[in-house]
Design brief:
Chain lengths: ~350, ~120
């Protein structure tokens, strides 16, 4: 520090409110510092300049300067009157010593606060949007099968498909129109809503698909739109579960519901119809035949066609019925599935 | 909570990415790659990339890494230096070593798409 200009520079540094220090090459000794640096160091009560700059990793300053010539690090200091943010820059000089300077960085504090509040806002909005999306998806799932929704979402369209082997189930409540409850709209809806909700859970549980309800009729399928080999088994298990649920429910509810169920297996077409009101619907002879099976059945029994029997006969005990005339079909062999606690297990008769 | 959130979300990572690019631009061998490049957009990409890697909300939606880097003819040595600087930026932000390893594993996995010559 010999010339006049050096002295002037030193005086300016002394007066600077930003901390400024000269460190040795190892960043362990403070060779010189201005009052602002000394004050900060005294207040922070840290053992080394490295710890002052980077409290979490005190060695980083020396290591990084040795390797890259430069080290930058933001730091915050809390004191009585608030928080002070400094942005530290350490630079290796030609003679190996390290010049360390901390710039007041109130803008960083402002920026942090701003980003934090903005991020919170965005996160809240994202969470709301996410909830809305889930709600819409759940609603959609009530109307369309999962696979069809995925098709619509990724391709924008879903095309009708022919399924070679599926099972179709019709369930209808016996004597519905004569039941007193059918003249009490609110009670009727509460009852059907409760029953169908439980049916839907059973349907889903057995990997089947509820297609629609038409008044007091419930239409479910298996093997479409998700193809599976054991569609007849799944649907028969669901049928048994519907009846068991009704039996249990009837014990404790004033309104007693008796259902007939018919199942048939064959080919059917599935696809989305409608422009404004989408519905995934199924078509084909198998649907009609399943409806006939239901009509030809008896209360609280599952009536299945020969085609379905061939698929489940090994797994369910079934009782063959006398050949019966089926509307539009002629004579057909039909079976009642036994709804005992023992069936569902492989039958020894098979 | 994913890693991205745990380390403080965009707030933290935009700062890490800022420090990372400052250190990249200080390296004489790397400077030529960035001439005439919109650094702010690059930083945005990088932040999204990190967010994606750490399970955050963003998705990287730029052109493929290969397309983005092909004309630069990046050497293996320079790629490694950039990767090293990224590690340092993550270390400076006090990220746990195992999380840094995770990020670096993914970054190194992109090497063949970015480097123009055999290393």
């Amino acid at each position: 520090m010999s010339s006049a200009s050096d002295f002037a520079g030193l005086a300016a540094a002394e007066a600077l409110s930003s901390p400024l220090a000269m460190l040795d090459a190892e960043a362990s000794l403070v060779l010189w510092c201005n009052p602002a640096f000394a004050a900060l160091q005294a207040q922070a009560k840290v053992p080394s300049p490295g710890a002052l700059v980077c409290a979490e990793q005190p060695d980083r300053l020396a290591a990084r300067v040795a390797k890259r010539g430069v080290f930058e690090h933001p730091a915050k200091y809390s004191h009585d009157t608030g928080t002070r943010a400094l942005f530290w820059r350490a630079r290796r000089l030609d003679d190996g010593r390290i010049l360390l300077q901390g710039d007041d960085d109130s803008r960083t504090l402002e920026r942090d606060a701003l980003i934090q509040s903005y991020t919170r806002l965005v996160e809240e909005k994202t969470a709301i949007a996410e909830r809305e999306r889930e709600r819409a998806e759940r609603l959609l799932l009530n109307v369309l099968p999962q696979r069809v929704i995925e098709d619509l979402q990724s391709n924008g369209v879903t095309k009708p498909e022919l399924y070679k082997s599926v099972s179709v189930l019709f369930l209808d409540f016996v004597g519905f129109t004569n039941m007193p409850v059918s003249r009490q709209p609110e009670l009727l809806f509460a009852e059907l809503n409760d029953i169908y909700t439980n049916f839907d859970e059973i349907t889903e549980h057995f990997g089947c698909e509820r297609i629609k309800t038409i008044g007091d009729a419930y239409l479910a399928v298996a093997g479409m739109p998700d193809i599976c080999a054991d569609h007849a088994l799944r649907l028969t298990r669901a049928a048994r579960a519907y009846l068991k649920y009704l039996i249990k429910r009837n014990r404790s509810h004033p309104v007693k519901w008796l259902a007939r169920i018919g199942i048939h297996s064959g080919e059917a077409i599935g696809g989305v119809v409608g422009v404004r009101k989408y519905i995934y619907d199924v078509f084909g002879d198998a649907i009609n035949t399943a409806a006939r099976m239901e009509a030809a059945g008896q209360p609280m029994r599952v009536n299945i066609s020969e085609a379905t029997h061939r698929l489940i006969g090994e797994h369910f005990a079934c009782d063959p019925r006398p050949l019966g005339e089926v509307k539009g079909k002629g004579l057909m062999q039909m079976y009642f599935v036994r709804i005992g606690p023992d069936d569902g297990a492989p039958s020894s008769a098979a | 909570m994913n890693l991205f959130q745990r380390y403080g979300g965009y707030d933290t990572f935009s700062r890490i990415v800022g420090a990372f690019y400052r250190s990249v631009l200080r390296e004489p061998t790397l400077q030529p790659y960035f001439e005439g490049v919109n650094i702010e957009r690059l930083m945005e990409h990088q932040t999204k990339f990190l967010a994606m890697v750490l399970g955050g909300p963003a998705r990287y939606e730029g052109v493929t890494l290969q397309q983005a880097h092909a004309r630069l003819k990046i050497s293996g040595q320079d790629f490694d230096l950039v990767a090293e600087l990224l590690v340092e930026a993550l270390q400076d932000a006090s990220m746990a070593q195992e999380d840094i390893d995770h990020v670096v594993g993914i970054v190194l996995g992109t090497r063949s798409q970015i480097v123009a010559e055999p290393a």
